[in-house]
Design a protein that fits this description.
Layout: H1 4-11, H2 15-23, H3 30-43, H4 49-56, E1 61-65, H5 73-87, E2 91-95, H6 101-113, E3 118-121, H7 128-137, E4 141-144, E5 157-161, H8 164-176, E6 182-186, H9 192-207, E7 217-219, H10 224-235, E8 243-246, H11 249-261, E9 271-275, E10 289-292, H12 295-311, E11 319-322, E12 325-327
Parallel strand pairs: 1-2, 1-3, 3-4, 4-5, 5-11, 6-7, 6-8, 8-9, 9-10
Antiparallel strand pairs: 10-12
Length: 347
Amino acid sequence: MPTMADVARAAGVSVATVSHVLNDTRPVLPHTRQAVLDAIDRLGYTPNSLARSLVTARTRSIGLAVSAISNPYFTEILQGVEAGALEHGYSLLIADPHDDPAHERKVVQLLHERRVDGMIVAPSADPRELLAYLRRHDVPTVFLDRLVDDGAAPHFDQVCADGAAPTTRLVTHLAELGHRRIGLVAGRPGLSTTTERITGYRHGLAYAGLAHDERLIAHGDSESPGAERATAALLDLAAPPTALVTANNAMTIGALRALRERGLSVPDDLALCCFDDFAWADLFTPRLTAIAQPSKELGAQAVRVLLDRLAEPGRPARTVRLDCAFVHRTSCGCPEQLPNLPKGTTS
């Protein structure tokens, strides 16, 4: 089995240079780096990660705790984390907390016991046990998508998308189309994403000069079945909404099921806008007007922030917010926007 010394001889460099190329510990000239990589490929050299971790006290692995199985939104985030980790030579250990605080604490402990260098976690609605464990063991951690109240002197870095302003945009757009009773299918209470989207909803009503009616907010628990029940409750009101905002992609599906059960069509009977764009949103009839979160970039950004933390443990904690995009389609009641055609052609 070839060794690092064999690679160094084949590339005509020192063993230290090979180590710098493998571990990204020091800049190496491009042609020298390529010579080392060519020698690795030619000899079939495989780094001994276990031996390296014993020397450096680093495993070059990241623990990722997100509810990717139960929440499809996190699947794209996971792809971003994986791409970012691989780009920097890190492997991933993944666990699904199922949005359960007790299970969340257990899976984070299991990841920590496997000596990951740091963690990226999408916290549950009640992360108290999680925070206590991470603080007690001083685990480098980035909270992803959902913010936590980290006290007056924040200890943890956080990466999320803006939640309030995009929701305000959806509400004001519906108000501009003439809707005066706009309902919200909100997420699980306790999540920062839920709080921010409710705040954005209320701001949207205020900007449009509409009165806030608490009965027009129903919690769908961030899941499709809950959203189906919440939408049904809104439709049962004496004065039901004429337009609806759903606060995540899973709840959009639940809301559409509830509308179908009532024989209602979108947007003829009820206009619909949703938070979270997803791959098939423009395949529905009508096509869904949505807020698109930069899911993959959120994941990749969380990796970068974590690596910054590992490189400089004493740096102040920071919160990084990424912008969302308004994707205008037809479920809001607007006509289809046709692409600009060359002169002399017809659609």
